[in-house]
């Protein structure tokens, strides 16, 4: 039988086999010890090709190896990669995914637009290749529920031409363009009504269980930006209507970004693929009253009051 680490190394589509309890409830509240920590990588976007402008695709192998080595000496509950594991081509997965076998913590993937930059016959295999059974899912630990959304569900790149969701994406872009919305771009994506209902249901489940919520996606949703999820405003309105929602984290916009609504925080982590000789990754420390982001490389440290 697979153990907890083996089960989750594959990508984390299932809930945690044994939900983590955190580092010690009373002690964590009384001292500087966080409730728990987790590692974050955004947009390694690996490809075995020469650099283009500021993107150093092949360098992501050593950058990711460095991040994993750092994570392995830290007490973390898990590590999440916020999409764009590769930049293009099916063969790139065979180069970058083996690096995650060195990770000594449970590993969660979510997918970005570049993860589907493969030949059309491989589109149906992307989820399985990174170990996901489902593109959106949730898991629980340390008194918190983590919701992973799939912003590629309605998109031009993750769906075969002629499919229902491909047609829905074409209509969505046309409608958004007509409305003058600045994020009506083919490299962004959206979610279905079904997924939106699932997010609402999961938020209600967390509230009933007394859990605080952290949401993870590839696309930013706040503040307004041309990289944003097509459903950004709708999702922001939903999440901020719950008093147990704490934090939304994402990648996609390699420059990074940050916004807040009250003490609900939206953190866009910087892309690892950028820059020739520096890196970007983070360790997130969740306390009772705040979130501390320890930054590595060009990433920015943050202290976020809850």
Structure notes:
The protein is α/β, with parallel strands linked by helices. The chain has one domain (4-10, 21-305): 4-Layer Sandwich (Purple Acid Phosphatase, chain A, domain 2), CATH 3.60.21. Helices cover 24% and strands 21% of the residues. It contains 8 helices and 12 strands. It has helices spanning 4-9, 25-30, 60-72, 92-96, 126-129, 164-178, 193-209, 232-239, and strands at residues 36-41, 78-82, 107-110, 137-141, 144-148, 212-216, 245-250, 257-261, 264-268, 280-286, 290-297, 302-305. The strands form 2 sheets. Strands 3-2-1-10-11-12 form a 6-stranded mixed beta sheet. Strands 4-5-6-7-9-8 form a 6-stranded mixed beta sheet, with helices on one face. Strand 4 and strand 5 (144-148) form a beta hairpin. The chain starts with a helix and ends with a strand. Residues 1-10 have low confidence and may be disordered.
């Amino acid at each position: 039988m697979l153990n907890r680490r083996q089960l989750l190394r594959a990508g984390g589509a299932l809930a945690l086999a044994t939900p983590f309890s955190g580092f010690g409830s009373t002690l964590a509240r009384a001292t500087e010890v966080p409730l728990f920590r987790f590692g974050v990588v955004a947009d390694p976007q690996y490809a075995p090709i020469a650099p283009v402008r500021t993107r150093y695709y092949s360098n992501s192998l050593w950058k990711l190896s460095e991040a994993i080595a750092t994570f392995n000496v830290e007490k973390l509950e898990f590590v999440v990669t916020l999409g764009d594991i590769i930049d293009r081509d099916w063969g790139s997965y065979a180069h970058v995914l083996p690096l995650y076998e060195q990770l000594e913590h449970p590993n969660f993937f979510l997918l970005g637009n570049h993860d589907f930059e493969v030949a059309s016959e491989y589109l149906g295999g992307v989820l399985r290749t990174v170990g996901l059974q489902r593109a959106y899912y949730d898991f629980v630990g340390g008194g918190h529920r983590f919701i992973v959304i799939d912003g590629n569900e309605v998109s031009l790149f993750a769906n075969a031409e002629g499919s229902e969701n491909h047609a829905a994406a074409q209509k969505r872009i046309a409608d958004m363009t007509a409305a003058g919305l600045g994020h009506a771009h083919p490299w962004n994506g959206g979610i279905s009504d079904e997924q939106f209902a699932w997010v609402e249901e999961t938020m209600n489940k967390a509230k009933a269980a007394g859990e605080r919520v952290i949401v993870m996606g590839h696309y930013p949703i706040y503040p307004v930006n041309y990289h944003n999820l097509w459903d950004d405003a709708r999702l922001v309105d939903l999440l901020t209507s719950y008093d147990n929602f704490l934090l939304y984290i994402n990648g996609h916009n390699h420059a990074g970004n940050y916004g807040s609504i009250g003490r609900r925080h939206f953190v866009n982590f910087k892309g690892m693929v950028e820059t020739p000789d520096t890196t970007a990754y983070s360790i997130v420390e969740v306390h009772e009253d705040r979130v501390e982001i320890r930054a590595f490389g060009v990433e920015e440290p943050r202290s976020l009051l809850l």
